[in-house]
Amino acid sequence: MRGITRDCVVEMFDRKIWFIFALVTLFTIIAIALSGTMDFKLSVQTNENLDLQQINNIFGDPLMRSYSLFLSFLIFLTVLATSGLIPNMLKKGRAEFYLSKPLSRNSLLLNKLFGIWFTYGSIIVLCSVFVWATMYLIYGFFDWHILYILISGLVVLFLWLSIIVFTGIIFRTNALVLMTVFIVWVIQYILKYHESISAFFKSKQIGYVVDTLYYIIPKTSKIADIAFEYASKHNMVSWEPLYSSLLFVIILLFVTSYVFKRISY
Once rounded to an integer, what is the mean pLDDT over residues 85-109? Predict the structure, then answer.
């Protein structure tokens, strides 16, 4: 596994992907630093000035929300950056090289998946730590519950990478991988409102279909929402979207392994 992970790291640096992450992080840090120079006081009818903590409560934890958006954007960049890795690995010539390694196809598949996840997950964690440290230096913001957002982000990244690996093996083209990921993202985002959709159509049949799709499709947006809800308000939330999404990934990996072992290269 270390060899394949090392290949993933070398590939990331060779393609200059790290530079984009560093640039996005730098701009975010500058934005946070500049925002710290502004006067965040709000006058109300009683002429009372609200401090940062009160404004933070009024506007729904903007610092933590900004951190969550930053993390989501890094995951989006990672999906774009990694969508072509599996199709490139399976090109004629390169496929023979990888398949000639003293590894079973299952081991090669899982090592590649975890290698990509570890490589890009590590740089996401590093960038997140820099942004978190900046928030602490500028605003004195420190809440260990923010770790729930970071951990959920790594889980969401693994979900998307599992889909990328599956579609990469099936289609073997970067374009179709990106299109499939986009379609899945749109579907899972719409299905966040499955209860409202079922109520709107007032049809049991449509309701069953919508609910079934909701429980099958990985719920990445929902996972991010519940992680933010728990981190910011410390409310008890249902982690069912996380459990059902992880179950989806387990089944998907079994299917991917089955298909990968039977494809001739």
Answer: 81
Q: Of 160, 174, 178, 89, whose CA–CA distance to 124 is shortest? A: 160
The closest of 224, 245, 246, 226 to 236, measured between CA atoms, is: 226
Is this model's pTM higher than 0.90 or not? no
Q: Residue 251 is part of which domain span?
A: 2-262
How many domains does one find in the chain? 1
Distance CA 52, CA 177 (A): 44
> DSSP of 212-236, one letter per residue?
HHHHHS--HHHHHHHHHHHHHH---
Pairing outcome for strands 49-50 and 42-43? antiparallel
Q: Helices 220-233 and 146-171: crossing angle, nearest 10°?
A: 170
Most distant CA pair in the chain: distance in Å?
75
Q: In the prediction, which pLDDT does 59 show?
A: 52
- What is the rounded CA–CA span in Å between residue 39 and residue 180? 45
Contact 24/127 with Cβ under 8 angstroms? yes
CB atoms within 10 A of CB 55: 13
Task: Please say if the pLDDT value at position 252 is more than 70.
Answer: yes
What pLDDT is stored for residue 150 in this prediction? 93
